[in-house]
Amino acid sequence: MKKTQDFIQNNQQRFLDELFELLRIPSVSADPAHNGDVRKGAELVAQHLTEAGADKVEVCDTAGHPIVYGEKIIDPSLPTVLVYGHYDVQPADPIELWDSPAFEPVIKKTDIHPDGAIFARGACDDKGQVFMHIKAFEAMSKSGELPCNVKFMIEGEEEVGSENLGVFIKEHTERLAADIILVSDTGIISNDNPSITTGLRGLSYVEVEVTGPNRDLHSGLYGGAVANPINVLSDMISQLQDDKHKITIPGFYDKVEVISEEERAEMAKAPYDEEEYKSSIDIKNVQGEEGYSTRERASIRPTLDVNGIWGGYIGEGAKTVLPSKAFAKISMRLVPHQEPEEITAQFKDYFESIAPDSVTVKVNPHHGGLPAVTPIDSDGYMAASNAMEKTFGKKPVPLRSGGSIPIVALFEQVLGLKTVLMGFGLNSDAIHSPNEHYGLFNFYKGIETIPYFFEEFTKLSQK
Amino acid sequence: MKKTQDFIQNNQQRFLDELFELLRIPSVSADPAHNGDVRKGAELVAQHLTEAGADKVEVCDTAGHPIVYGEKIIDPSLPTVLVYGHYDVQPADPIELWDSPAFEPVIKKTDIHPDGAIFARGACDDKGQVFMHIKAFEAMSKSGELPCNVKFMIEGEEEVGSENLGVFIKEHTERLAADIILVSDTGIISNDNPSITTGLRGLSYVEVEVTGPNRDLHSGLYGGAVANPINVLSDMISQLQDDKHKITIPGFYDKVEVISEEERAEMAKAPYDEEEYKSSIDIKNVQGEEGYSTRERASIRPTLDVNGIWGGYIGEGAKTVLPSKAFAKISMRLVPHQEPEEITAQFKDYFESIAPDSVTVKVNPHHGGLPAVTPIDSDGYMAASNAMEKTFGKKPVPLRSGGSIPIVALFEQVLGLKTVLMGFGLNSDAIHSPNEHYGLFNFYKGIETIPYFFEEFTKLSQK
């Protein structure tokens, strides 16, 4: 891969400039106002795939946002790597908390990134990481060192549940035939401590609506006599967890994967400093399910979070209103063996059951996703491990992540393919938050590592 | 009052047109963006007072919104009635729930108002009722039948706590010298059942802020391990009341006025139909403090309501965020002997005490107000009772209201004056809500009744 690595070294600035162009497109999949931008994002990704040397590049329409496909088949007898990623991003709000505009990428130095980091929505999740693959592929193909076949499937709905990707892969199992799926949408422990994600949590996401009176009322004339939907919703949310921070939904824990003490002890060995963790987000104390460590709570245990709440008067000043309605967005992270549809149904039954008869409640399911665990003895995992060891000079450790990439489980069900989660982000990258960023070190380290994965995987799978 | 009543009959349409002009001004005192409109409202009120025959009319500047003053002294030896009201209004939102624009008044018929009602923000609270006084005064003075002296004090900050009115009356005790204060900012049981408000609740209004991590976090990477400010705020709100709907703030009930069984039995006699009450706001069941009736909960008992709540992602679609902050506006209605400042302090201490160490909380007091009760044996009350009996053909019943007009207690403290609450609205008028309206019947009945109050009060106070 000598020529490939030289090519990468000689084109670093151009790679960065091209990524900036992609980051300037506000491809927010959750907001219909940005539908046009999402398509622009797809078209630019397609253009880069073509320029990088991919064939049959296509912006595939779906019932929602388009999926970008491209491939390079050099020899059908060689193994094929299917690269998956997404070009859509989370909404930027609260925008007032961004130090620089979310869609005007800039390089800034930080303590963790002394060489500088790219600040922009999607810099890490996932445009920056998708772009590493496109550029690594360009380097290999332009240098004539591409060791095997490659296919790209870059979607635009990962942040809203990947529903149409599910349809797409079911309809294109032939076209997507491969030996392994390679994804960079996760992270490493730190730039000195490489790791590979071996587990992802599933997701159940619902929106709830509590309705009291048929109109907003004067809180002086009706307060105390008519149930207040905000007070009721608060009560109901509070009843979703007990004082040990266990989720109270009947049946919620029934199928939760039990992790052996040995495995927990093994996980506990990964480098971690709780004081550092707390100070990095400026909290006095952590809080979570009794009997589990902070990292266990955020990886091997299911959780419940209110992602948004609103109701009544939220403008300036004071309004003495008893509102008609209150709303909340609530999501649950699931662990292996928990079924999103089943959990959503359990939530709905329980939430409706604890509603007082002074209000009516509606539970509207958003998207869900299955949890996934990836084996650490597969050719794919070994290839990633060897590749990272080459570029980091250190063997990566396997690690369970708390995040969700619902589609991973579906890949296995529909395409019968294992997925390797070789991501290069850091928890401190503030993905989904204001000032999301991605280290230049990580961006270039990714581009450098990916070709070695191709090389290693081709070797191993031909043994 | 024959000439006066004729004058009113002959000018009904003009009175209505003039009120519409005032209703078109969005004098929302809570929103700084409307400061200019609030002043416009003050100037129009002043203009009408002058045209009605008032002297020394002045738009008095304050640290906040102006106060309109005007007077007519026909004979210093005669009694003086001080008319108080407010020309500011509540914010119109949620505007999407208005069937016609909040500041474009229209007449529409309703089941309760077969002759039609005026639909507009402020139609009842309080522009419509203030206007009744200006027009009744015009009728009396133009007909040469004004029986005593009158002073007007119409403020622009009633909906935000009347802070500067408090300063104003302290600085103008001479100028405001009178024998009684007459206010129409309350209601009657129904158009067939006149009533006079003899009690008002006080108010303590706070805004709370719960802060967890220093930035929004990815709920997958941090959820379950870091306290979620929305979940925590919900827990804390839920802890403010117990399962009997009693407020749990230590000391909250200590000074609450105890009402005798006899008095409660007396109050229970006022006409009331709970089924009608429930269906009017479309709720399956009422809910409130154990041991008290619906009307007691909304009048003689203190209450706590969340008037607004917000935090996290409240846009369309799904965002898996663990927010940095969550907020709520919370108000408590107080009954006689409860001190707003003391209650606010008790709330602050308690709210801070129940916060887990995984978050920090801030409690910011908004405005407060003292409760008030008015005697039913005074000349003022008798004058109002006789006047209403004349125009309704039925003796009004005394009634405690759940609302607050904080300034009433201050009038007594600073000016040593009792207040008569002779209002003409209905609970169904949707004040503070979308589609606020005021019956034409009520508007004209008020104009018709007020002159009789002046006549009766002059007679009684000269005995």
TrEMBL record, chains A, B:
Residues 199-357 form the Peptidase M20 dimerisation domain. InterPro entries: Cyt/Met_Dipeptidase (IPR051458), Peptidase_M20 (IPR002933), Peptidase_M20_dimer (IPR011650). It comes from Brumimicrobium oceani. Pfam families: M20_dimer, Peptidase_M20. GO terms for molecular function: metal ion binding; peptidase activity. Keywords: Hydrolase, Metal-binding, Protease. One of its GO terms (biological process) is proteolysis. This is Dipeptidase. The lineage of its organism: Bacteria, Pseudomonadati, Bacteroidota, Flavobacteriia, Flavobacteriales.
